[in-house]
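Figure 3 (text version): structure tokens given as input.
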């Protein structure tokens, strides 16, 4: 489980935070031993435990974000995002709120080893990061039309990293 640090704002309650982050109040209480649920105060730092984002990745709302802009940025529809985040109101995004973003192209990957392409990433860079030959990354992702212009939000299958006698094991850095 991923945790996010949060500073209590005016009007916040554990109930409102639980609704905003789509988690149970009890989860917030368990992540913050000793917290007094009825007496949180402005500026108090608390941990927000966030559920895993299955088959996608997390995006944290920034100032002036809209659901439409986020959808465009990751080559998905606003409806796709809302389907993965059923408690989110498309007209009331909250600064710091976490969304689960689905891949723009969903494929089945062996052993569930995958990566969702983010802005600025290239196949070359990802092959180096995962310690695999670029040709292998391209070969297992035959759904990519142009390897030189992979779309943000594309789900890539990631083959096992290379193990060589002189270099040893190089693990994943998602």
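Below: residues designed for each position.
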């Amino acid at each position: 489980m991923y945790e996010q640090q949060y500073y209590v704002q005016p009007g916040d309650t554990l109930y409102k935070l639980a609704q905003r982050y789509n988690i149970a109040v009890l989860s917030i209480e368990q992540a913050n031993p000793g917290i007094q649920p009825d007496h949180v105060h402005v500026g108090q730092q608390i941990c927000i435990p966030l559920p895993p984002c299955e088959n996608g990745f997390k995006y944290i709302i920034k100032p002036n974000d809209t659901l439409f802009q986020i959808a465009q940025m990751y080559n998905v529809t606003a409806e796709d995002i809302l389907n993965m985040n059923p408690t989110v109101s498309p007209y009331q995004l909250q600064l710091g709120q976490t969304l689960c973003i689905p891949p723009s192209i969903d494929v089945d990957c062996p052993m569930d080893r995958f990566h969702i392409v983010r802005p600025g990433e290239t196949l070359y860079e990802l092959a180096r990061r995962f310690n695999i030959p670029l040709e292998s990354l391209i070969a297992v992702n035959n759904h990519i039309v142009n390897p030189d212009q992979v779309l943000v939000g594309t789900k890539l299958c990631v083959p096992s990293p290379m193990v060589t006698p002189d270099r040893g094991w190089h693990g994943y850095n998602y």
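The chain has three domains: 1-51, 53-102, 110-169.
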